[in-house]
Amino acid sequence: MSPKDSNTVGAATGGVYDVKESGVHFRHMPAPPIPKSGQEFLERVKKDLEINVLERPNENELVFELKGVDVSFANALRRIMIAEIPTIAIEHVYMWNNTSIVHDEVLAHRIGLVPLKIDSRYFDDFYDEDDEPTDRNTVVFRLNVECHLPDKNRNANSRDATDSSSRNNKKDDGIKNEKDSVLGQGNMDTAAAESTVLYRATHPNSHQNSNATDNNRPYTKHVYSSDLEWIPQGDQAQTVEGGVLRPVHEDILLAKLRPGQAIELEAHGRRSIGKDHAKYSPVATASYRLMPHVELLKPVYDELAKELANLYEPGVFDLVPCTEDEEGQECKAVVVNPYASTMSRNYMRNEYLKEAVKVSRIPNHFIFNIESVGMMPPAIILSESLKILMQKCHNIIRLADESLEAELIHE
């Protein structure tokens, strides 16, 4: 973008943010003329509005640019993404049996915070607390786990290395595999085994509790989010895309069980929004920044150019060979990617660069970053937020029309 283009953008938005040694300063410019009608305003928005995808680092992250709009529009999208897009999370937990050391309300809270891989568009809202749960508004999960006492005969043969090795591969009883160890870490298991040996040496009656250990190690079963079993209701198995509803992450630790302890519960998920509770928010972060505008007011050559391109602003500038008109110079710096600018002012330490480089922010050009927690793809989050914003606009128009009609009636 040339300096002329920068001035045009500033005129279209009422000013430009200039980066100076003392900070970022807003420079006022003539504001655009007020639209003569709503139609003219819409035409102006349609002409200037532009959305382009810039990056897709992974399946849960999206970076895009939003151009030609006011900051109020960008912030409205951000707030909608965080608090107003419907998702599904566990709302009610019916505890049938819980003999673990985790209290019922704590366990229910932990389960409620587990993000679920469910497309909320297949389900309806609960409009009232007295509404009956149906297959159209409720998702049911069941958790039924138990830590069994070790088999005495198997314990008697635990000194046999072959038998011990074979038992390591058994997952059902939770014996000596990585998932059911003390912390899933070898050094922690070793420390636990040493602690058990020391306890037995100092407590002669410790053989009474031998069933609570396996090969001199505490016998612990870990309960993960993967143990939550989806129970289809009605025709959910046929109507839901993919046919399977599950947690986003299957390795979220919910509780730890010792022999004889069990958890049995039923969890009901329903549709709601982040305004109601943070567990319904589909994004970890939704943020935006103004697009940097970088320009060179003076040519920067050779060592100074290398310093600028590689040290002060890596990725923003590139080095190109000098032309024949620039005798005695080897290379010079040119702006290639303002998007990579971190708005650092380190280059201002050099007196020449401080005068040669000008950095500003374009006030109607936003770089958006959406990081989804996995409930829905970030592109869907963006499209749903735009739909919700459109619906809000329609509601305002409807309310305005109703207000005008009421005034005419009273007249």
Write structural notes for this entry.
The chain has 411 residues and is α+β, with helices and mostly antiparallel strands. The protein contains 11 helices and 16 strands. The chain has 2 domains: 3-83 and 285-371, RNA polymerase, RBP11-like subunit (Gyrase A, domain 2, 2-Layer Sandwich), CATH 3.30.1360; 87-281, DNA-directed RNA polymerase, insert domain (RNA Polymerase Alpha Subunit, Chain A, domain 2, Beta Complex), CATH 2.170.120.12. It has helices spanning 3-13, 38-48, 71-83, 104-112, 152-156, 161-168, 186-202, 236-239, 302-312, 351-356, 378-410; strands at residues 15-20, 23-28, 50-58, 61-67, 87-98, 116-117, 139-146, 221-224, 229-231, 246-247, 253-257, 262-272, 283-296, 317-321, 331-335, 357-372. Strands 1, 2, 3, 4, 13 and 16 form a 6-stranded antiparallel beta sheet that branches. It has a 4-stranded antiparallel beta sheet with strand order 5-12-7-9, covered by helices on one side. The chain has a two-stranded antiparallel sheet with strand order 6-10. A hairpin with a 2-residue loop joins strand 1 and strand 2 (23-28). Helix 3 (71-83) packs across helix 11 (378-410). Mean pLDDT is 81; it is low at 152-183 and 206-217.
Structural key phrases:
411 residues, alpha+beta, flat, 2 domains, four-stranded antiparallel β-sheet, RNA Polymerase Alpha Subunit, Chain A, domain 2, six-stranded antiparallel β-sheet, Gyrase A, domain 2
What average pLDDT do the residues reach?
81
Identify the quaternary structure here.
single chain
- Residue runs with pLDDT of under 50 for 5 or more positions: 152-183, 206-217
Any idea what the CATH architecture of the largest domain is?
Answer: Beta Complex
The CATH top-level class label of the largest domain? Mainly Beta
CA gyration radius, whole angstroms: 31 Å
